[in-house]
Amino acid sequence: MDRRRPTIHDVAERAGVSVSTVSKAVNGRYGVATATVDAVMAAVAELGYESSLIASSMRSRSTGVIGVLVADFEPFSAEILKGVGEALRDTSYDLLAYSGSRGDEEGWERRSLSRLSGTLIDGAIMVTPTVVKASADVPLVAIDPHTGPADVPIVESDSYGGAREATAYLIGMGHTRIGYIAGRADLRSSIARDAGYRRALADAGIPFDATYVGAGRYREATVREVAIEMLSTPNRPTAVFAANDVSAIAILQVAAELGLEVPRDLSIVGFDDIPEATRLPVPLTTVRQPMGRLGAAAVQMLLALMRGETPPATHLRLPTKLVARQTTAPPVRQRAG
């Protein structure tokens, strides 16, 4: 006997409609004809789908699931997800990681929240969202949000302080030609890291030079193009600060291709401290942001909202820490001996 639990696909097939139509019908959304809703609900009853997550949520008004929306499952998002999962371990909630991004298309979170809210999730955490304002039928928290005015609680790291410390560290080693490869211009964190870099230069009396700055936008191919151009000039930087570790790793690869030895010819500092940072042939000096704690803090904030409470804080900024490894050293011209 087949004891497999019926799925939403089974319901769609039995009713002769699409999966999205089933979702709309069981969630009571507009745009579905009454006859179609009746057909879907008949299929739900016939297949015993009332024991499924969606049908149960219709009765209890709760799914027991928290969604985490990420544009890509890259290292930063993966570490955030670990933190969220750990924070949910001793709760009654399950975790649903969801990515509905289509390349650079903006606003995918809005569509995803519309699909998930009230049907599959009780609350959502958005990681590096593209939206300025988000509306949904469930509580929301944003990690590393967009630059616009936020209408949801925020959890982020001290990007300004971390970037300032990283740049000051390179200056303290004797570097004065320090490049910076920036991240996404639409993120608060990227703007803060740019400001921290500039502040450290100003503090040391080093003039800002726009030729030492490039927009990598957290895209490996773009970072490579910027790095090749920056490091191929006669008066190239002796050190580069990258807005994240993935970008720093791409710069390491470019340096090797150009015949530059790290750190003898070029010092490199990243930002994040992803696990890969310690596994490189030359371990990466980087700014550690507490990615797991970001996820855990977002969970606590979200749970408070879901209980109808006001969180102790609706904007958390967690400290960062510089971690010195083997990709940084004084510039050759100023070394002793």
UniProtKB/TrEMBL annotation:
<protein>
    <submittedName>
        <fullName>LacI family transcriptional regulator</fullName>
    </submittedName>
</protein>
<dbReference type="InterPro" id="IPR010982">
    <property type="entry name" value="Lambda_DNA-bd_dom_sf"/>
</dbReference>
<keyword id="KW-0804">Transcription</keyword>
<dbReference type="InterPro" id="IPR046335">
    <property type="entry name" value="LacI/GalR-like_sensor"/>
</dbReference>
<dbReference type="InterPro" id="IPR000843">
    <property type="entry name" value="HTH_LacI"/>
</dbReference>
<feature type="domain" description="HTH lacI-type">
    <location>
        <begin position="6"/>
        <end position="60"/>
    </location>
</feature>
<dbReference type="InterPro" id="IPR028082">
    <property type="entry name" value="Peripla_BP_I"/>
</dbReference>
<keyword id="KW-0805">Transcription regulation</keyword>
<keyword id="KW-0238">DNA-binding</keyword>
<dbReference type="Pfam" id="PF00356">
    <property type="entry name" value="LacI"/>
</dbReference>
<dbReference type="Pfam" id="PF13377">
    <property type="entry name" value="Peripla_BP_3"/>
</dbReference>
